[in-house]
User: What shape does this take?
Amino acid sequence: MTICFYLQQGVEVLDFAGPMEVFSAAGFRVITVSRKKGPVTSQGILKIMPDYTIDDAPPFDILAFFGGGTNAATKDTGLIAWIESRRTSTSYFFSVCTGAFILGKAGLLDSLSATTFHSSIEELRTALPRTRVLANVRFVDNGRVMTTAGISAGIDGALHLVTRLKGEEAAKEVAAYMEYDKWVPNQGLVVAER
Amino acid sequence: MTICFYLQQGVEVLDFAGPMEVFSAAGFRVITVSRKKGPVTSQGILKIMPDYTIDDAPPFDILAFFGGGTNAATKDTGLIAWIESRRTSTSYFFSVCTGAFILGKAGLLDSLSATTFHSSIEELRTALPRTRVLANVRFVDNGRVMTTAGISAGIDGALHLVTRLKGEEAAKEVAAYMEYDKWVPNQGLVVAER
Assistant: This one.
Protein backbone atom coordinates (compact mmCIF):
# COMPACT_ATOMS: atom_id res chain seq x y z
CA MET A 1 0.00 0.00 0.00
CA THR A 2 1.11 3.54 -0.75
CA ILE A 3 0.50 6.47 1.60
CA CYS A 4 0.82 10.02 0.34
CA PHE A 5 2.06 12.63 2.83
CA TYR A 6 0.88 16.05 1.68
CA LEU A 7 3.36 18.61 3.06
CA GLN A 8 2.39 22.29 2.97
CA GLN A 9 4.55 25.29 3.89
CA GLY A 10 4.81 25.45 7.67
CA VAL A 11 3.83 21.81 8.31
CA GLU A 12 4.61 20.79 11.91
CA VAL A 13 7.56 18.39 12.02
CA LEU A 14 6.34 15.74 14.46
CA ASP A 15 2.82 15.77 12.96
CA PHE A 16 4.12 14.05 9.85
CA ALA A 17 7.34 12.44 11.11
CA GLY A 18 5.61 10.25 13.70
CA PRO A 19 3.21 8.66 11.17
CA MET A 20 6.04 8.51 8.58
CA GLU A 21 8.10 6.40 10.98
CA VAL A 22 5.10 4.16 11.72
CA PHE A 23 3.96 3.55 8.13
CA SER A 24 7.53 3.11 6.89
CA ALA A 25 8.32 0.58 9.64
CA ALA A 26 5.05 -1.24 8.82
CA GLY A 27 6.19 -1.72 5.22
CA PHE A 28 4.01 0.87 3.48
CA ARG A 29 5.42 2.79 0.53
CA VAL A 30 5.59 6.45 1.59
CA ILE A 31 5.59 9.35 -0.88
CA THR A 32 5.66 13.09 -0.21
CA VAL A 33 3.68 15.62 -2.23
CA SER A 34 3.64 19.42 -2.11
CA ARG A 35 1.69 22.14 -3.86
CA LYS A 36 4.52 23.36 -6.11
CA LYS A 37 8.07 22.41 -7.01
CA GLY A 38 10.77 23.53 -4.61
CA PRO A 39 11.39 23.19 -0.89
CA VAL A 40 8.76 23.14 1.84
CA THR A 41 9.93 24.47 5.20
CA SER A 42 8.60 22.62 8.23
CA GLN A 43 8.08 24.79 11.30
CA GLY A 44 10.56 27.37 10.04
CA ILE A 45 13.38 24.86 10.52
CA LEU A 46 13.47 21.79 8.31
CA LYS A 47 13.76 22.29 4.54
CA ILE A 48 12.21 19.36 2.67
CA MET A 49 12.22 18.50 -1.05
CA PRO A 50 8.97 16.59 -1.70
CA ASP A 51 8.89 13.79 -4.27
CA TYR A 52 5.97 15.14 -6.30
CA THR A 53 3.65 18.09 -6.68
CA ILE A 54 -0.13 17.77 -6.91
CA ASP A 55 0.32 18.03 -10.70
CA ASP A 56 2.42 14.88 -11.08
CA ALA A 57 1.63 12.72 -8.02
CA PRO A 58 0.95 9.05 -8.84
CA PRO A 59 -2.08 7.19 -7.41
CA PHE A 60 -2.01 6.19 -3.74
CA ASP A 61 -4.17 4.26 -1.29
CA ILE A 62 -4.06 6.66 1.66
CA LEU A 63 -3.90 10.46 1.61
CA ALA A 64 -2.67 12.16 4.79
CA PHE A 65 -2.70 15.79 5.99
CA PHE A 66 -0.90 17.39 8.92
CA GLY A 67 -1.06 20.54 11.03
CA GLY A 68 0.91 23.75 10.63
CA GLY A 69 0.18 26.21 7.82
CA THR A 70 -3.32 24.77 7.40
CA ASN A 71 -5.03 28.17 7.35
CA ALA A 72 -3.41 29.00 4.02
CA ALA A 73 -3.97 25.44 2.76
CA THR A 74 -7.74 25.57 3.33
CA LYS A 75 -7.91 28.75 1.23
CA ASP A 76 -6.00 27.14 -1.64
CA THR A 77 -8.77 26.29 -4.12
CA GLY A 78 -6.31 24.36 -6.34
CA LEU A 79 -5.39 22.08 -3.44
CA ILE A 80 -9.01 21.50 -2.45
CA ALA A 81 -9.95 20.68 -6.06
CA TRP A 82 -7.04 18.21 -6.21
CA ILE A 83 -8.23 16.43 -3.05
CA GLU A 84 -11.74 16.19 -4.51
CA SER A 85 -10.28 14.79 -7.74
CA ARG A 86 -8.56 12.01 -5.73
CA ARG A 87 -11.64 11.16 -3.70
CA THR A 88 -12.69 8.07 -5.62
CA SER A 89 -9.25 6.59 -6.26
CA THR A 90 -8.09 6.95 -2.62
CA SER A 91 -9.20 4.30 -0.12
CA TYR A 92 -8.46 6.12 3.14
CA PHE A 93 -8.02 9.70 4.33
CA PHE A 94 -6.02 10.50 7.46
CA SER A 95 -5.27 13.72 9.31
CA VAL A 96 -3.19 14.74 12.31
CA CYS A 97 -3.78 17.91 14.34
CA THR A 98 -5.17 20.81 12.30
CA GLY A 99 -4.84 18.73 9.12
CA ALA A 100 -8.54 18.07 9.85
CA PHE A 101 -9.33 21.57 8.55
CA ILE A 102 -8.03 20.55 5.11
CA LEU A 103 -10.04 17.31 5.05
CA GLY A 104 -13.09 19.28 6.20
CA LYS A 105 -12.70 21.97 3.55
CA ALA A 106 -12.68 19.25 0.90
CA GLY A 107 -15.99 17.95 2.28
CA LEU A 108 -14.49 14.72 3.56
CA LEU A 109 -15.76 15.19 7.12
CA ASP A 110 -19.39 16.01 6.23
CA SER A 111 -21.77 13.99 8.46
CA LEU A 112 -18.81 12.34 10.20
CA SER A 113 -17.11 12.66 13.60
CA ALA A 114 -13.67 14.19 13.89
CA THR A 115 -11.06 15.60 16.22
CA THR A 116 -8.14 18.03 15.94
CA PHE A 117 -5.46 19.89 17.95
CA HIS A 118 -6.73 20.64 21.48
CA SER A 119 -6.64 24.45 21.00
CA SER A 120 -8.56 24.24 17.70
CA ILE A 121 -11.64 22.22 18.71
CA GLU A 122 -14.02 25.21 18.83
CA GLU A 123 -12.59 26.65 15.62
CA LEU A 124 -13.20 23.33 13.83
CA ARG A 125 -16.79 23.24 15.13
CA THR A 126 -17.36 26.69 13.64
CA ALA A 127 -15.68 25.80 10.36
CA LEU A 128 -17.50 22.46 9.95
CA PRO A 129 -21.11 22.72 11.14
CA ARG A 130 -21.97 19.36 9.51
CA THR A 131 -19.24 17.54 11.48
CA ARG A 132 -19.45 16.23 15.05
CA VAL A 133 -16.17 17.58 16.53
CA LEU A 134 -15.00 15.68 19.61
CA ALA A 135 -12.58 16.89 22.29
CA ASN A 136 -10.44 14.75 24.59
CA VAL A 137 -10.12 11.82 22.22
CA ARG A 138 -6.82 10.57 20.78
CA PHE A 139 -8.28 9.78 17.35
CA VAL A 140 -11.63 9.32 15.64
CA ASP A 141 -11.95 6.55 13.06
CA ASN A 142 -15.01 6.69 10.77
CA GLY A 143 -13.90 3.76 8.64
CA ARG A 144 -12.65 5.47 5.52
CA VAL A 145 -11.78 8.82 7.12
CA MET A 146 -9.73 9.14 10.28
CA THR A 147 -8.59 12.22 12.23
CA THR A 148 -6.27 12.45 15.24
CA ALA A 149 -5.65 14.98 18.00
CA GLY A 150 -2.52 17.13 17.99
CA ILE A 151 1.11 16.42 17.08
CA SER A 152 2.17 13.27 18.99
CA ALA A 153 -1.36 11.80 18.69
CA GLY A 154 -0.49 11.14 15.05
CA ILE A 155 1.73 8.28 16.19
CA ASP A 156 -1.19 6.62 17.98
CA GLY A 157 -3.50 7.21 15.03
CA ALA A 158 -1.00 5.73 12.59
CA LEU A 159 -0.57 2.65 14.78
CA HIS A 160 -4.36 2.30 14.84
CA LEU A 161 -4.57 2.42 11.05
CA VAL A 162 -1.76 -0.14 10.80
CA THR A 163 -3.74 -2.31 13.24
CA ARG A 164 -6.79 -2.10 10.97
CA LEU A 165 -4.91 -2.75 7.73
CA LYS A 166 -2.26 -5.25 8.89
CA GLY A 167 -3.48 -6.51 12.27
CA GLU A 168 -2.59 -5.74 15.87
CA GLU A 169 0.48 -8.01 15.87
CA ALA A 170 2.00 -5.98 13.03
CA ALA A 171 1.26 -2.73 14.87
CA LYS A 172 2.74 -4.11 18.09
CA GLU A 173 5.92 -5.03 16.21
CA VAL A 174 6.19 -1.48 14.88
CA ALA A 175 5.63 0.01 18.37
CA ALA A 176 8.32 -2.31 19.80
CA TYR A 177 10.77 -1.42 17.03
CA MET A 178 10.16 2.30 17.71
CA GLU A 179 10.50 1.70 21.46
CA TYR A 180 7.09 3.35 21.77
CA ASP A 181 6.53 1.47 25.00
CA LYS A 182 3.75 3.86 25.95
CA TRP A 183 1.41 2.75 23.17
CA VAL A 184 -2.08 1.82 24.34
CA PRO A 185 -4.03 0.07 21.53
CA ASN A 186 -7.66 1.12 20.96
CA GLN A 187 -7.19 4.39 22.83
CA GLY A 188 -9.34 6.38 20.39
CA LEU A 189 -12.91 6.30 19.17
CA VAL A 190 -14.00 3.96 16.39
CA VAL A 191 -17.26 5.33 15.03
CA ALA A 192 -17.93 2.84 12.28
CA GLU A 193 -15.97 -0.22 11.31
CA ARG A 194 -15.86 -0.81 7.58
CA MET B 1 20.31 28.42 23.22
CA THR B 2 21.12 26.86 19.87
CA ILE B 3 20.92 23.12 19.22
CA CYS B 4 22.63 21.63 16.17
CA PHE B 5 20.97 18.59 14.60
CA TYR B 6 23.61 16.63 12.67
CA LEU B 7 21.78 14.76 9.89
CA GLN B 8 23.66 12.01 8.06
CA GLN B 9 22.51 10.04 5.02
CA GLY B 10 19.92 7.50 6.16
CA VAL B 11 19.06 9.24 9.44
CA GLU B 12 15.85 7.81 10.97
CA VAL B 13 12.99 10.29 10.68
CA LEU B 14 11.42 10.10 14.15
CA ASP B 15 14.86 9.99 15.84
CA PHE B 16 15.45 13.64 14.98
CA ALA B 17 11.88 14.90 14.42
CA GLY B 18 10.72 14.12 17.98
CA PRO B 19 13.53 16.14 19.63
CA MET B 20 13.21 18.83 16.91
CA GLU B 21 9.56 19.33 17.88
CA VAL B 22 10.46 19.44 21.59
CA PHE B 23 13.38 21.86 21.38
CA SER B 24 11.58 24.10 18.89
CA ALA B 25 8.45 24.27 21.09
CA ALA B 26 10.69 25.02 24.09
CA GLY B 27 12.08 28.08 22.32
CA PHE B 28 15.52 26.79 21.36
CA ARG B 29 17.05 27.85 18.06
CA VAL B 30 17.39 24.71 15.93
CA ILE B 31 19.90 24.38 13.08
CA THR B 32 20.59 21.41 10.82
CA VAL B 33 24.06 20.40 9.66
CA SER B 34 25.20 17.72 7.24
CA ARG B 35 28.52 16.43 6.02
CA LYS B 36 28.40 17.97 2.54
CA LYS B 37 26.21 20.31 0.54
CA GLY B 38 23.11 18.79 -1.06
CA PRO B 39 20.19 16.75 0.17
CA VAL B 40 20.23 14.16 2.92
CA THR B 41 17.66 11.39 2.55
CA SER B 42 16.05 10.24 5.78
CA GLN B 43 15.08 6.58 5.84
CA GLY B 44 15.00 6.41 2.04
CA ILE B 45 11.93 8.69 2.07
CA LEU B 46 12.33 12.28 3.20
CA LYS B 47 14.74 14.52 1.26
CA ILE B 48 16.12 17.27 3.50
CA MET B 49 18.26 20.32 2.66
CA PRO B 50 20.35 21.04 5.80
CA ASP B 51 21.19 24.64 6.72
CA TYR B 52 24.96 24.14 6.97
CA THR B 53 27.73 21.66 6.38
CA ILE B 54 30.40 20.86 8.94
CA ASP B 55 32.63 23.32 7.06
CA ASP B 56 30.45 26.39 7.65
CA ALA B 57 28.33 25.58 10.72
CA PRO B 58 28.18 28.39 13.30
CA PRO B 59 28.79 27.78 17.02
CA PHE B 60 26.04 26.05 19.03
CA ASP B 61 25.36 25.08 22.62
CA ILE B 62 24.11 21.52 22.08
CA LEU B 63 25.22 19.01 19.44
CA ALA B 64 22.84 16.13 18.71
CA PHE B 65 23.22 12.87 16.79
CA PHE B 66 20.57 10.39 15.66
CA GLY B 67 20.29 6.79 14.48
CA GLY B 68 20.19 5.49 10.91
CA GLY B 69 23.28 5.45 8.72
CA THR B 70 25.52 5.61 11.77
CA ASN B 71 27.81 2.79 10.62
CA ALA B 72 29.12 4.95 7.77
CA ALA B 73 29.21 8.03 10.00
CA THR B 74 31.49 6.39 12.57
CA LYS B 75 33.96 5.55 9.79
CA ASP B 76 34.00 9.15 8.54
CA THR B 77 37.25 10.51 9.97
CA GLY B 78 36.40 14.05 8.81
CA LEU B 79 33.15 13.99 10.81
CA ILE B 80 34.85 12.60 13.92
CA ALA B 81 37.59 15.25 13.71
CA TRP B 82 34.89 17.95 13.41
CA ILE B 83 33.13 16.69 16.55
CA GLU B 84 36.43 16.72 18.42
CA SER B 85 37.08 20.28 17.19
CA ARG B 86 33.71 21.37 18.68
CA ARG B 87 34.26 19.63 22.00
CA THR B 88 35.28 22.69 24.00
CA SER B 89 32.84 25.20 22.51
CA THR B 90 29.78 22.89 22.89
CA SER B 91 28.11 22.71 26.30
CA TYR B 92 26.04 19.54 25.83
CA PHE B 93 26.08 16.45 23.64
CA PHE B 94 22.92 14.46 23.00
CA SER B 95 22.20 11.28 21.07
CA VAL B 96 19.13 9.25 20.18
CA CYS B 97 19.21 5.56 19.22
CA THR B 98 22.42 4.50 17.44
CA GLY B 99 23.59 8.11 17.40
CA ALA B 100 25.49 6.93 20.51
CA PHE B 101 27.96 5.15 18.22
CA ILE B 102 28.98 8.53 16.76
CA LEU B 103 29.41 10.16 20.18
CA GLY B 104 31.38 7.11 21.29
CA LYS B 105 33.66 7.15 18.26
CA ALA B 106 34.52 10.77 19.05
CA GLY B 107 35.54 9.71 22.57
CA LEU B 108 32.65 11.52 24.24
CA LEU B 109 31.37 8.44 26.07
CA ASP B 110 34.73 7.34 27.56
CA SER B 111 34.31 6.49 31.27
CA LEU B 112 30.61 7.41 31.10
CA SER B 113 27.32 5.45 31.07
CA ALA B 114 25.21 5.30 27.91
CA THR B 115 22.33 3.60 26.18
CA THR B 116 21.24 3.05 22.58
CA PHE B 117 18.65 1.29 20.37
CA HIS B 118 17.49 -1.94 22.02
CA SER B 119 18.93 -4.19 19.28
CA SER B 120 22.32 -2.47 19.41
CA ILE B 121 23.17 -2.73 23.12
CA GLU B 122 25.67 -5.61 22.71
CA GLU B 123 27.23 -4.00 19.66
CA LEU B 124 27.78 -0.74 21.56
CA ARG B 125 29.39 -2.67 24.44
CA THR B 126 31.83 -4.21 21.97
CA ALA B 127 32.52 -0.90 20.23
CA LEU B 128 33.04 1.08 23.47
CA PRO B 129 34.84 -1.02 26.09
CA ARG B 130 35.43 2.08 28.25
CA THR B 131 31.70 2.86 28.43
CA ARG B 132 29.11 1.32 30.77
CA VAL B 133 26.31 0.46 28.32
CA LEU B 134 22.90 0.08 29.96
CA ALA B 135 19.85 -1.77 28.60
CA ASN B 136 16.20 -1.15 29.51
CA VAL B 137 16.60 2.52 30.33
CA ARG B 138 14.86 5.35 28.48
CA PHE B 139 17.85 7.70 28.65
CA VAL B 140 21.15 8.10 30.49
CA ASP B 141 22.19 11.60 31.57
CA ASN B 142 25.82 12.06 32.58
CA GLY B 143 25.52 15.81 33.02
CA ARG B 144 27.22 17.10 29.88
CA VAL B 145 26.61 14.02 27.71
CA MET B 146 23.24 12.35 27.35
CA THR B 147 22.14 9.33 25.31
CA THR B 148 18.67 7.90 24.79
CA ALA B 149 17.23 4.55 23.76
CA GLY B 150 15.72 4.07 20.30
CA ILE B 151 13.57 6.29 18.09
CA SER B 152 10.61 7.51 20.19
CA ALA B 153 12.80 7.60 23.34
CA GLY B 154 14.36 10.72 21.84
CA ILE B 155 11.18 12.62 22.73
CA ASP B 156 11.54 11.64 26.40
CA GLY B 157 15.24 12.47 26.40
CA ALA B 158 14.63 15.88 24.83
CA LEU B 159 11.93 16.66 27.41
CA HIS B 160 14.41 15.68 30.12
CA LEU B 161 17.07 18.04 28.74
CA VAL B 162 14.48 20.84 28.54
CA THR B 163 13.59 20.09 32.18
CA ARG B 164 17.24 20.48 33.14
CA LEU B 165 17.83 23.66 31.15
CA LYS B 166 14.47 25.43 31.53
CA GLY B 167 12.71 23.68 34.42
CA GLU B 168 10.00 21.03 34.70
CA GLU B 169 7.15 23.53 34.21
CA ALA B 170 8.58 24.52 30.81
CA ALA B 171 8.92 20.85 29.83
CA LYS B 172 5.37 20.11 30.98
CA GLU B 173 4.09 22.97 28.83
CA VAL B 174 5.89 21.52 25.80
CA ALA B 175 4.47 18.03 26.49
CA ALA B 176 0.96 19.50 26.82
CA TYR B 177 1.34 21.49 23.59
CA MET B 178 2.49 18.32 21.79
CA GLU B 179 -0.37 16.33 23.37
CA TYR B 180 2.31 13.95 24.61
CA ASP B 181 0.02 12.93 27.42
CA LYS B 182 2.08 9.81 28.02
CA TRP B 183 5.17 11.66 29.20
CA VAL B 184 6.54 10.45 32.53
CA PRO B 185 9.18 12.88 33.90
CA ASN B 186 12.40 11.42 35.35
CA GLN B 187 11.87 8.10 33.59
CA GLY B 188 15.56 7.68 32.73
CA LEU B 189 18.82 7.42 34.65
CA VAL B 190 20.65 10.51 35.87
CA VAL B 191 24.22 9.45 36.56
CA ALA B 192 25.69 12.77 37.63
CA GLU B 193 23.98 16.10 38.03
CA ARG B 194 26.10 19.03 36.93
